[in-house]
Amino acid sequence: MINLLGEILAFSLLAFWLLFFGVQWVAERLGLWLGRRAAAKGSPPGEGVGVVVGGMLGLLAFVLALTLSFASTRFEERRQGTLTEANALGTAWLRAKAIGHPRGEEVAKLLEEYTKLRADFITAPAEREVVRAINDQTSALQTRIWENVTAIVRERPDAIAATLMAATNEVFDSSTAERFAFSQTMPPQMVWLLMGIAVLSIGALGYQLGLRGLSLPFLSVLLIGMWTSVIVVILDLSAPRVGSLRSSAAAYYWTLDGFSPGIAPVRR
Questions:
Q1: Percent of the chain scored above 90 by pLDDT?
Q2: Could you give the angle at which helices 188-211 and 13-40 cross, rounded to 10 degrees?
Q3: Do 13 and 126 contact (CB within 8 A), yes or no?
């Protein structure tokens, strides 16, 4: 079921918004009908119902804050990871150029290709085959780069070669950290908890209104729309390859621009 929700999110955030809004609206209408039915049978509109509904809405607000914090943290990790990796790539390229070894030029060229590939990783769509292909190419390039760096260090076991090796290792570590950050999404249990509490809270609110003989359609729709919008933004923040709130690959393009005037990176 969570895969279906992910596919809807990937297809259109508006479609997910409308679907979830519709589910909550139905829950509110059902609660309103049950409340009116209970009132018709003589059930008093006691204060106990209001206390329960207030508690549910308070719990919903708490879960919203919790999930928003989680999503914001994951988004910031991905954003910071791109900057860290781009800086590491720039440092490694400069050291490869300055080492004064024929293999250093080859390492620099491979790092240019590697940087473009890392930008492709950041902007890749939510398709497993595409991401897997990029990761395979990344591993292959890492092997080629490391072979050249190792050869340089063996021929020149000095401090300058050691700094190139350290910078290259930092590039690879940053790539692994960024790949891990992009694999971290909102846990399914948290998504269902958030959506379930939202639906139940709106339904309970409708029940309370029905007990009191009220309807308030405009305010109910407004409240449902607000809850839905906040939840959609949270899910958008937590999904690295879905929606409009995605990490930018600008840092990689800036790094490419700084490599050489002859490089014309393709921006996506």
A1: 39
A2: 40
A3: no
Expressed in angstroms, the distance from the first to the final Cα of the chain is 32
Q: Write 147-153 long-range contacts (CB < 8 A, 24+).
A: 148/103, 148/106, 148/107, 148/110, 149/103, 149/107, 151/103, 152/99, 152/101, 152/103, 152/104, 152/107
| Tokens linked to 27 | 């829950």
Q: Please list, residue by residue across 243-259, b when 16 or more beta carbons sit within 10 angstroms of its beta carbon and e when fewer do.
A: bebbbebebbbebbeeb
Q: What is the pLDDT of residues 14-32, one digit of tens each?
A: 888 898 999 999 999 999 9
pLDDT tens for residues 79-137? Answer: 999 999 999 999 999 999 888 888 888 999 999 999 999 999 998 887 889 999 999 99
- H-helix or E-strand spanning residue 3: helix 2-11
Torsion of CA 244, 247, 253, 259, to 10 degrees: 180
CA distance 178 to 201: 37
Mapped onto helix, strand or coil, the DSSP state of residue 46 is coil
Please state the separation of Cα 23 from the chain's center in Å: 24
pLDDT at 46: 60
Q: What is the pTM of this model?
A: 0.80
CA distance 104 to 6: 44
Can you tell me the distance from the alpha carbon of 223 to that of 167, in angstroms, rounded to the nearest whole number?
A: 52
